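Hello again, I could really use a second opinion on something today. I owe you a coffee for this, so here goes:
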Amino acid sequence: MEKENLKQKEKLNVRELTLSNGMSFPSDAELIMMILGSGTKQTPIEYLAGKVLSAIERTNPPELISELLKIEGIGSSKALMIAASLELGRRLNRQPQGSVNKPTDIIPFVQHYAMRSAEHFLVVSLNGAREILSVHVICVGAANMAVVRPRDVFCEPIKEHASAIVLCHNHPSGMCHPSPTDISTTEDLVQVAGLLGIAVLDHIILTRHGYYSLLEHNELPVF
């Protein structure tokens, strides 16, 4: 009983501190805790929030609800509540048309992945007017190594009739320069893109301290 009261007090403290300090104060997991409101008898809210955050980080929006429903303690109401919160945030923070004048203009849309502890490989789809159509997580790597398959990279851009893409991934190590694997992967994807008639505008590496653009360093392969 005392342990349960302590958890309740900690939850209230997060709410009170958020009210005092603003919405930038709580961690991602604490934001999810406030959305969920409570856990279950079998699953404490802290554990539940961690599972939900993990699902959000590795899943693209169209598949999120089905992934959330796989978590014990998350029913359809909570899954919809989480998905609705994320969608509203995306809509309200979307820049007008998400227009890209140069490839690095997409950085504000993906910068938050720089804080991830695992490597995330992303593809940003663009239409002919260089407006952002979508940002998709292609894979989440283990041991700081993302395994990238061309069919996964180009699946959504083809569906969206994208005319161009920007490749992007984070380096959890903090090293901003591309590895030999990064270069060879980019070469493979640029070659496939050429066959599909899709332009690869850049490959951007994100870290907590900055970014590295292959285009800006004249390292983007041309076929």
Remarks:
- The helical segments are 2-21, 28-36, 45-58, 61-68, 76-92, 107-110, 150-159, 180-196.
